[in-house]
Amino acid sequence: MSTTSDVATAETARGQSASHDVNAGRDWSRSLWNLVILAGVIAALAISWGPAEMGRWTYLFTDSANMAEYASGFLRPDFTDWRYYLHEMIVTVQIAVWGTFLSLIVSIPFGILCAHNMVPWWVLHPCRRLMDFFRAIHEVVWAVLFVVAVGLGPFAGVMALFIHNTGIMAKLFSEAVESIDPRPVEGIRSTGATRIQEVVFGVVPQVMPLWVSYTLYRLETNVRTATILGVIGAGGIGQVMFESIRGFYYPQASAILIIVVATVVVIDLLSQQLRKFVT
Amino acid sequence: MTAIAVEKLSKRFGKKQALAGVDLTISEGEMVALIGASGSGKSTLMRHICGLERGDAGSIVRILGEVQQQDGKFGPKMRDLRGKTGVIFQQFNLVARLPVITNVLCGILGHISPWRGTFGIFTRAEKRAAIESLARVGIGEVAWQRASTLSGGQQQRAAIARTLLQRSKILLADEPIASLDPASARRVMDVLADINRTDKLTVLVSLHQVEYARVYCPRTIALRDGKVVYDGPSDALSDDFLTELYGSASEELVLPQRLPVKSSAGKAPASSTSGARQGRELVPA
């Protein structure tokens, strides 16, 4: 509907442009496209309303007492076993550290191989599809697969983080590579450098600040994800937390949650300092 | 011996014919200016000669007698020839976040073992050579600063230092002074002229402003719409002839600020005659 009326406006405007030159050379198809995209977004939201059961939003208010009752269990955290919780929290961080490190090593070459300004299409597309595949499967699913292969425990968690996170970091890295200034790279190329040297001296220095920041951000995310992986048997604090929630030990669960939040905050603060140091 | 030989070089970008059958030959040791209005094909020609762009079918570029590209394909000695042709660009093309000395050291990547180059392991002697070439262009003291902290003129001289370390036989300068103030521009042109004279490098420099061509380069090649429209002594390029060649576009070539040549006139080759000529011709214009 809006489309037809818009075409009409476009035509009247074109008719006037002979007398008023302000719109001469204006590309009306762009304005039209903007409207089409807007209509598309609104349509997608409308179609999804029912299946997502968005109509239940009223329960947030009518049944809020249930939530309050449940939450009250968390109000008195019980830190009696804090040494144990802390130990498990450190295991979770260690899972995240190894998962992030392995994916960092693999994402550096794949970040270059997935950038359209670096490689021909027949390298680009296979690499991108492989990364899509790594990324499309959730860490939890990867973890279940690796539990089957390497058994229950932290190593399955490391592998799950490694694979999924490689898909994400390679994409983020390649986007940084695609936005570089090509001129310094040409400067290096003009000296007779090899392709790899062009990357080392021309590309890497330009993307380094972004790559560092993405890696630190992913480390943070991986600490949170590693917590969840504990729930399905990959060890660490998640396993302890899941057991206390399942056993209705809310004060203990509450203490664990506080430790998780505090850890994420500490990692965020540390990574901010690191970022300042590197850039 | 011929340094650069270009035959029937054509290049089309979509609808635009950027180069239409360019033929030119430059002998070793020459200093040649390439002039033309914006969009006349100067940069495109430069990018073909330094091997960053490939021409259409029928085009041949020879560097120092070796085929660098033919029919849109790079020859087998491509990388070696890139090493022999140093290039400096209008926007300097230094890696801003690296120290100046590392930028300069990139010049020898074509000469040392690929493994050592890739890991950035440079010997003490190589580093000393880099600092010497920086000193040669007058900025030895900035070696360990990040390239981004340098002024435009300093960056351009660092880029020249890189080509010096590259020990290239040919120096291509694509609009090297277009982004610089007049004083820096003159200093950069002085360095280029000095390299041409003392190191016997062949220099091809594309310029926006004919004044510099008259002062520094004995020979000028002029482009219009991707074709060579003049190739001869810079002295013979009068303002009237330029107007005839470029019509209204000649304004951007001739009219820019009067070149403060007087101080450098003594240093530059072929400057006494052209300097006088320029003084005479600019008055009526």
Automatic annotation (TrEMBL), chain A:
Record keywords: Transmembrane included? yes
Specify the ABC transmembrane type-1 domain's residue ranges: 89-271
Entry keyword set: Cell membrane, Membrane, Transmembrane, Transmembrane helix, Transport
Provide the topology term for how it sits in the membrane: Multi-pass membrane protein
Q: Name one Pfam family in it.
A: BPD_transp_1
Main location, first listed in the record = membrane
The record's subcellular location field reads:
Cell membrane
Q: List the residue ranges of the region (Disordered).
A: 1-22
> Which ranges does the record mark as transmembrane?
32-52, 95-119, 140-163, 248-270
Q: Which family does it belong to?
A: Belongs to the binding-protein-dependent transport system permease family.
Its recorded name reads Phosphonate ABC transporter, permease protein PhnE
Q: Which species does the entry assign this protein to?
A: Jiella pelagia
Which lineage?
Bacteria, Pseudomonadati, Pseudomonadota, Alphaproteobacteria, Hyphomicrobiales
UniProtKB/TrEMBL annotation, chain B:
InterPro entries given in the database record: AAA+_ATPase (IPR003593), ABC_transporter-like_ATP-bd (IPR003439), ABC_transporter-like_CS (IPR017871), ABC_transpr_PhnC (IPR012693), MetN_ABC_transporter-like (IPR050086), P-loop_NTPase (IPR027417)
Ordered alphabetically, the record's keywords are: ATP-binding, Cell membrane, Membrane, Nucleotide-binding, Translocase, Transport
Q: Region entry Disordered: which residue ranges? A: 260-285
- From the UniProt annotation, give the residues forming the signal peptide: none
Q: Does the keyword Protein transport apply?
A: no
Question: Could you tell me one molecular function GO term of this UniProt entry?
Answer: ATP binding
Keyword Kinase attached: no
* Pfam families (UniProt xref): ABC_tran
Every ABC transporter domain range? 4-250
Question: Cross-referenced NCBIfam families, in alphabetical order?
Answer: ABC_phnC
Give the similarity note: Belongs to the ABC transporter superfamily.
By what name is this protein known? Phosphonate ABC transporter ATP-binding protein
Q: What is the lineage of its organism?
A: Bacteria, Pseudomonadati, Pseudomonadota, Alphaproteobacteria, Hyphomicrobiales
Q: Which gene encodes it?
A: phnC
